[in-house]
Amino acid sequence: MVKQINCIIVDDEPIAREILATHLQKIDIIKVSKLCKNAVEAFNTISSDKIDLIFLDINMPEISGLAFAKSINKNIKVIFTTAYREYAIDGFDLQAVDYLLKPISFERLLKAINKFSNENIEIIEKPVVETHEKNDFIFVRADRKMVKINFSEILYIESLSDYIQIHLIDKTITTRETISNIEAKLPQHQFLRTHRSFIISINKIELFTNEFVELGNKAIPISRTYKNDVLKKLESL
Questions:
Q1: Span 5-117: which CATH code?
Q2: 41 C-beta neighbours (distance < 10 Å), count
Q3: Where in this protein does the record say 4-aspartylphosphate is found (predicted)?
């Protein structure tokens, strides 16, 4: 199962943050958790959230990107984004994944993401927590209640930004949760991520093609990012 890459963008220039975020939104496995305008905001974010990758500007006021990179947990990877070539050696001395010069093209950014993925394959494909497989249900918060949902009742789960809709056999439950968080709570042998916005119940699949799976009279898309893993799984059943 392809794990989503949680990243943050750290740059004191608003336009630079927005341009990079727009590029990253086109890549299914990337989730931009926060746009930070300085190292302090970034530090607070990585202290509270699980972040895999930081896109880090170098020339920032108060704390430079290089100084910030030296101070963080080395398990969090860094891709430097800067307008200055002269810091490249310092950046790679800090074992940065890549060093991108502004303006950053989408093609160059994608190359850096691929490099990160290849170098961190154990992170990207690491199975999610197995302890949840002991249960055959989860609880989610809906309408100020904790609602029990049996895995056997789930058809598919759809992401709506900060919310998800859990489509059951006879009803739909909406809860404030990210699809990555709910994916981590599901048993891998019963559920399959087919798209950045969809998780399906494998047992409920009625048919599939290379582009979609159908269940409950609903066609769920298979995105290019997940296609190889999805088809490999389905063809092995």
A1: 3.40.50.2300
A2: 14
A3: 57
